[in-house]
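// run 5 | inverse folding | seed 20
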């Protein structure tokens, strides 16, 4: 079983890794992923009894955890917003006069005479100490959290801030005591080396960074919030023939919902009466309103832009397509991209390594130039290091991209699939229902020599009216009204056709591979008719009764208007499109030529499509398979990334890594571009996070001091805060993706 937990107390990537390791050690836990971005944890475990052990393990690790009810998973922890803002404001109001007092006499700012360091050094030092300790008390969470993390031998960002700010406070306090003991002229000298301002500036600037980071992180979840808000709070249903307004959570499958202009659809269902237009852009990215009439489907969250509709609810609550979309985005955000493995490894040793570097730099400078420089460089190293940027580099990009993709009608199920989309070199496209509309029509009915047309029609209708395949439906609709033979047996032969039995006689309907290959029937009497069907891009379907060939029915399918454009855009991106189909090679050649596809493989069974996908991937690198039917499920699973169009079968959607809601091949191009943009963004974030620490830590340690380049503690705090904010803000650029 899989469960979502809310985790409290995490401040950086080291925290998330420590929680993850603690839970991974619990007996019965199969997998665990902790998200610093959402303060959530997804755990897969064997039995309900394991849940309490998971919570206990997180508690022992020094954090809090509580299971979350399905459908109520946290999007982001909003609680600290108001209190954090107040703490920051008060801290800033105390830090600014402290900074002015400590630095004003050095840069020419006026200072009240009664606080002059030369005339009243003890007043000068006392006011600074009071202001600094007040800021420390306001931000005591850094000290408590950091100290507890050190005690548990799991140091985190709070530990670094605590040590940096605490060392400054301790230094100032000891200096103040020495001034009191020394008195007189010595007090003036001591007052010049307090560093109380550094302690307060570190805490205030880190708090500012965390607040800005929090606001930016909340923006990355804006898409989920927007999707969640699409479900209306109330619904109007028919009860005893009268319209009744009820809360949406009380809606049940089978209820008839009344929808008027301006209403949002509260559940998935089918129109039973009325006519109208629906705006589905929030779910599919399709800006054009869609006409709806009895028999058409409606999805939760769609807006009725015009008309009056009555809909029978089929899926409600957590079973709706909207709920599934939100759940899919959450799961993608909680998953981990392969590119993040380096950051995970660095995060595991980051804080202990920083502590070691700070200690070494302090000792080196102690021997080189004395306690003052040793203190400055040691504190700067502690404060400038930023494990948060490493922890947020990929999750923020994944969250923003999956949310933006959902708004454009592209649902990505995992971070790995999104990253792989950015590396795709080949796209394998199923023909029927993907490149074509999947709206088959009978274009020719040709009985074999000596066969009555009525007999061919009767057998064809009996077999195809029981199948859900697009070709079968077209034949059944065209022959509706024909005599329906009573069948004593019926089965589908995947990739080949259908089988039935009546009065002891075996009936078959399907492609040449079935009748000519498996049944060894001679199809040559229908060669001219078959050629005529193939010449116009149709698909021939043969029928037999016993060992008698009954005839062929040609079924045609119109190309989607956007298919050729999608193929052209793939080529512009340097991606090779390949068409895979079970059709006759001659029919496939005509379709490929119309679309500008240079490579195609025809006559493929489901296993053949999967084999072709594996072969193409081995030849050309990462491959995206786009399909819609049951026959495509093996190929979707075999591909590096499988994309199912939204109108496809449930089997195809389940087998896929990506779902294209609007059933258009153009959405495959959108998915590819989104993958490339996300991969580029993740690389930028990881580069910045690693480069920032690789450069700033040596600078703070004083490596470049001979060149006059160094960092004061307050400057280090500002740089650290900027790092994580930069990473999150860079990820937010994906919200502009078009």
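// decoded
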């Amino acid at each position: 079983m899989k469960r979502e937990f809310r985790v409290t107390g995490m401040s950086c990537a080291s925290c998330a890794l420590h929680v993850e390791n603690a839970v991974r050690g619990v007996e019965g836990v199969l997998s665990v992923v902790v998200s610093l971005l959402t303060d959530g944890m997804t755990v897969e475990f064997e039995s309900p009894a394991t849940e309490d052990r998971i919570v206990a393990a997180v508690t022992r690790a020094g954090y809090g955890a509580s299971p979350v009810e399905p459908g109520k998973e946290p999007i982001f922890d909003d609680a600290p917003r108001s209190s954090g803002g107040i703490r920051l404001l008060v801290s800033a109001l105390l830090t600014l006069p402290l900074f002015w007092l400590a630095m004003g006499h050095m840069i020419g700012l006026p200072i009240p005479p009664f606080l002059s360091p030369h005339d009243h050094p003890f007043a000068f030092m006392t006011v600074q100490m009071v202001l600094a300790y007040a800021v420390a008390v306001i931000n005591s969470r850094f000290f408590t959290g950091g100290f507890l993390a050190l005690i548990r031998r799991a140091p985190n960002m709070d530990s670094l801030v605590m040590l940096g700010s605490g060392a400054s406070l301790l230094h100032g306090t000891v200096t103040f005591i020495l001034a009191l003991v020394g008195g007189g002229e010595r007090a003036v000298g001591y007052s010049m080396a307090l560093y109380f301002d550094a302690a307060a500036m570190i805490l205030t600037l880190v708090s500012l960074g965390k607040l800005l980071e929090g606001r930016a992180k909340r923006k990355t979840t804006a898409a989920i919030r927007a999707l969640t808000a699409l479900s209306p709070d109330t619904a109007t249903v028919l009860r005893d023939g009268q319209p009744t307004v009820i809360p949406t959570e009380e809606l049940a499958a089978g209820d008839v919902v009344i929808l008027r202009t301006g209403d949002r659809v509260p559940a998935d269902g089918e129109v039973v009466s009325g006519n109208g237009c629906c705006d589905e852009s929030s779910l599919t990215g399709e800006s054009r309103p869609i006409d709806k009439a009895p028999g058409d489907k409606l999805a939760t969250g769609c807006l009725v832009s015009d008309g009056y509709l009555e809909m029978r609810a089929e899926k409600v609550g957590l079973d709706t397509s909207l709920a599934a979309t939100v759940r899919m985005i959450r799961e993608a955000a909680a998953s981990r991209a392969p590119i993040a493995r380096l950051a995970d490894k660095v995060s595991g040793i980051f804080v202990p390594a920083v502590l070691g570097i700070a200690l070494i730099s302090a000792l080196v400078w102690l021997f080189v130039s004395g306690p003052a420089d040793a203190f400055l460089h040691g504190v700067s190293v502690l404060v400038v290091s930023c494990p948060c940027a490493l922890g947020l580099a990929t999750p923020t990009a994944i969250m923003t991209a999956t949310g933006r993709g959902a708004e454009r009608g592209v649902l990505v199920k995992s971070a790995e699939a999104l990253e792989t989309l950015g590396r795709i070199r080949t796209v394998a496209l199923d023909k029927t229902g993907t490149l074509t509309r999947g709206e088959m029509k009978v274009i020719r009915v040709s009985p074999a020599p000596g066969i009555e047309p009525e007999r061919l029609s009767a057998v064809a209708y009996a077999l195809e009216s029981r199948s859900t395949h697009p070709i079968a439906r077209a034949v059944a609709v065209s022959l509706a009204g024909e005599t329906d033979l009573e069948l004593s047996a019926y089965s589908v032969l995947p990739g080949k056709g259908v089988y039935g039995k009546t009065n002891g006689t075996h009936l078959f309907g399907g492609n040449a591979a079935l009748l000519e290959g498996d049944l060894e029937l001679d199809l040559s009497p229908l060669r001219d008719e078959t050629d005529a069907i193939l010449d116009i891009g149709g698909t021939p379907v043969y029928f037999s009764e016993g060992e008698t060939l009954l005839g062929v029915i040609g079924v045609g399918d119109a190309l989607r208007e956007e298919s050729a454009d999608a193929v052209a855009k793939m080529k512009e991106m340097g991606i090779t499109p390949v068409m895979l189909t079970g059709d006759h090679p001659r029919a496939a050649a005509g379709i490929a030529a119309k679309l500008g596809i240079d490579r195609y493989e025809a006559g493929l069974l489901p296993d053949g499509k999967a084999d072709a996908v594996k072969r193409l991937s081995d030849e050309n690198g990462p491959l995206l398979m786009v399909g819609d039917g049951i026959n495509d499920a093996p190929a979707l699973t075999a591909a590096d990334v499988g994309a199912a169009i939204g109108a496809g079968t449930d089997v195809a959607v389940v087998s896929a890594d990506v779902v294209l809601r609007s059933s258009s091949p153009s959405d495959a191009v959108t998915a590819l571009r989104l993958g490339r943009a996300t991969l580029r963004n993740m690389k930028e974030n990881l580069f910045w996070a690693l480069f920032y620490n690789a450069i700033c830590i040596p600078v703070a340690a004083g490596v470049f001091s001979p060149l006059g380049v160094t960092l004061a503690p307050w400057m280090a705090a500002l740089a650290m805060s900027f790092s994580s904010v930069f990473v999150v803000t860079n990820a937010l650029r994906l919200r502009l993706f078009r």
